[in-house]
Amino acid sequence: MDIHIEFAPGRGRRDEIYRQLRAAILDGRLRAGDPLPPTRELARRVEVSRNTVSAAYDRLTAEGFLDAHVGSGTFVRDGAGRADRPAPGLPSPLRPVEIWDAMPNAPRSFVTTAEFDFRAGVPDLRRFPFDTWRRLVANQLRESAADVLTYGDPQGHPGLRAAIARQIGLSRGVRAEPDDVLVTGGAQQAIDLVARVLLRPGEHAAVEDPGYPPPRLLFQTLGARVHGVPVDDEGLVVDAIPPGCRLVYVTPSHQYPIGTAMSLRRRLALLDWGGRNDAAIIEDDYDTEFRYAGRPLEPLHSLDSANRVLYVGSFSKVLAPGLRLGFLVAPPSLRVALTKAKSLADWQTANPIQAALAQFMDEGGFARHVRASRREYEARHDLVRRVLERDFAGLLTPIPSSAGLHVSAFASADMRPVVKAARKAGIRLYSLEDFTARKAEVRGLVFGYGAIPLDRIEPGLRLLRRVL
Ligand SMILES: Cc1ncc(COP(=O)(O)O)c(C=O)c1O
């Protein structure tokens, strides 16, 4: 480990080495078990005699900060430091721009800790194709393929763009050439890039209410004025979009969190609205690889003859959110600007991971994985619905939905206290109130079944029934 020692004029070098190492141990920068550099090496690096370093080490050892093991080196002694306490931060005059104070804290972890995890939007990581993925990534990390480790095309790995274009063409009827696709760090980055490229500070944008919170918050941080537009059983109420909106974000295939699909009538009305208002439409198709009944309605992107729709997809539900893989299909008029925005944001999405996914898709493993996951999630979807209808009649009204990783249900009372009480009982789930500004009108619960195994669903819902 490189340890930085600074000598101030007028201070003894041995004392400075002693003092600075001691401070590093006390504030946790050096932790129990960390090795110190050999005396000869540190002496050479900081340009003092070896005796000076040895004398500092001897004093720290005598005071119980270090353990010297003949032959293997000098280490920070157990219990000597304060690894349990973060290093105290020095006060700084720097403050974030005001908007960041208004943002909710970022969730730090989605690791399941509850006995029954009904959180929406979390896929089953036990289903992740670990062995195949290890092989695919290992295949990228060969000396003979080292190019994958250099900077690549910000628009995305060409093979992956081609595989995505094929995949969405087949499964969703989205017509796209590889050049229309931009690979992103999840759907979230796709939405961010679109907003950066299309919205000026002070302009108006619309999102669904209830709706997925991150796009609304993101647009706000970019200085946009964001309006929540009500959703009914046909989807976004297009007539309620305030005048002057330049951008609207929707989840037409599987409204988040209500779960319904936007009707064809509304889809056409939204496209028509886009034309009349010279606006762009973000279509977030985040989980419709999992469709259990009926024919999916045509994506807005396919119905759009005016090239106003930006189609966003994610690999977070079909593979794993931690991979941070998503994509955007954008009209050619925006491609150059979007690629510039992507390269300025993070240059590119991790190349070896993109290449691994391209191979997974080309080999057919991805399609098989989606099919097997769909069967599993369909069984969970059906079970949640059956139990809600059977055991929660009069309390909850399940909302028809036939896709994705969650089912929602309306309630007549405020569900936030129920969510709190459920949490105490070992159940994690969200309320519809978590996703709306209209908390007195939109009440209910959201049942995610991505994270909870089939055989835990009934016991979990039985317990919830007692909490309700
Ligand atoms: C509506 C919606 N869009 C997108 C995503 C996925 O986002 P990302 O690809 O950034 O992980 C989620 C995940 O919960 C979601 O609920």
Structural commentary:
Residues 11-79 form the HTH gntR-type domain. GO terms for molecular function: DNA binding; DNA-binding transcription factor activity; pyridoxal phosphate binding; transaminase activity. In the C-terminal section; belongs to the class-I pyridoxal-phosphate-dependent aminotransferase family. Keywords: Aminotransferase, DNA-binding, Pyridoxal phosphate, Transcription, Transcription regulation, Transferase. InterPro entries: Aminotransferase_I/II_large (IPR004839), HTH_trans_reg/aminotransferase (IPR051446), PyrdxlP-dep_Trfase (IPR015424), PyrdxlP-dep_Trfase_major (IPR015421), Tscrpt_reg_HTH_GntR (IPR000524), WH-like_DNA-bd_sf (IPR036388), WH_DNA-bd_sf (IPR036390). With 468 residues, the protein is of the alpha/beta class. The chain has three domains: 1-94, Winged helix-like DNA-binding domain superfamily/Winged helix DNA-binding domain (Arc Repressor Mutant, subunit A, Orthogonal Bundle), CATH 1.10.10; 116-121 and 368-467, Aspartate Aminotransferase, domain 1 (Alpha-Beta Complex); 129-363, Type I PLP-dependent aspartate aminotransferase-like (Major domain) (Aspartate Aminotransferase, domain 2), CATH 3.40.640. It contains 14 helices and 16 strands. The chain has helices at residues 13-26, 39-46, 50-62, 130-140, 158-172, 186-198, 213-221, 264-277, 300-303, 332-346, 351-362, 365-391, 416-424, 454-467, and strands at residues 66-69, 73-76, 116-117, 181-184, 204-209, 225-232, 235-236, 245-250, 280-284, 309-314, 326-329, 396-398, 406-411, 427-428, 430-431, 444-448. The strands form four sheets. An eight-stranded mixed β-sheet has the order 4-11-10-9-8-5-6-7, with helices on both faces. Strands 12-13-16-15 form a four-stranded antiparallel β-sheet, covered by helices on one side. It has a two-stranded antiparallel ribbon with strand order 1-2. Strand 12 (396-398) and strand 13 form a beta hairpin. Helix 4 (130-140) packs across helix 11, helix 6 crosses helix 10 and helix 12 (365-391) runs parallel beside helix 14 (454-467). The mean pLDDT is 94. It binds pyridoxal-5'-phosphate (PLP). Residues 121, 186-188, 212, 251, 256, 284, 286, 314, 316, 321, 326 line the site of pyridoxal-5'-phosphate.
